[in-house]
Amino acid sequence: MNFIDFLTETLHWVWNFELTLANLAQLSIAVIGVAAVALTQSSNPKLSRWACVLGLIGQPAWFYSAMVTKNYGIFLICFLYTWAWGKGFSKNFGHLRFFEVRWRQGVGWSLQGTRWIKPKSRDQE
Is residue 31 part of a domain? Predict the structure, then answer.
């Protein structure tokens, strides 16, 4: 097969690509997964901290793909990857709280809205 035939077949495959849920899962695994791994190798810490977020976003596609193809070993390993990405998320974003629960005298426990709360600096603790 020469290069022109290869290019023709490739373009034919791209133009006739069916967007099924399985194909969408594979596409998201490729794009999001590579982006997450690439961010882990970034020398900029502000960028590399987002790798875990992309990794967690891509996990449902991994679970779906593993179940559809009946790769139960991969399905179990997905839990380990989710735990690892979650650990990174906790390390990088664990200091942010989206809401605050407080005890009020006479009222009991109360939820203080869904707002960003600036965390205390480590010096103040």
Answer: yes
